[in-house]
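Researcher: We plan to redesign the surface later, but first we want a full-length starting point. Tokens attached.
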């Protein structure tokens, strides 16, 4: 006989509710991070590196495992002549991406 959710103990109901909500929250956080990333790119394109840095820093905790984000952040640091920061970000991106542009930018930093 199937158990109905209403017949389950409160802790089980709480766990099931949490498991249903967590993916939605993570999705919303990712969408928020992508929005910050788009603003960062826009400011970096305009060479407004101070504003770009603000948005990259806000997006970093959310997108720090995204190789495209890290490459873009490293490029902004490179264009702003912050080579040490660019190298550090590229070294973080290297294990999660096989994109050759990471190695090329890494070489340009030296």
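Model: Full-length starting sequence:
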């Amino acid at each position: 006989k199937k158990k109905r959710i209403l017949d389950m103990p409160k802790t089980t109901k709480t766990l099931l509710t949490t498991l249903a909500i967590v993916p939605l929250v993570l999705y919303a956080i990712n969408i928020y991070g992508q929005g910050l990333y788009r603003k960062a790119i826009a400011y970096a394109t305009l060479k407004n590196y101070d504003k770009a840095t603000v948005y990259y820093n806000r997006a970093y905790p959310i997108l720090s495992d995204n190789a495209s984000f890290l490459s873009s952040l490293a490029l902004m640091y490179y264009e702003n002549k912050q080579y040490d920061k660019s190298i550090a970000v590229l070294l973080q991106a290297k294990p999660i991406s096989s994109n050759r542009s990471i190695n090329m930018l890494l070489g340009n930093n030296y």
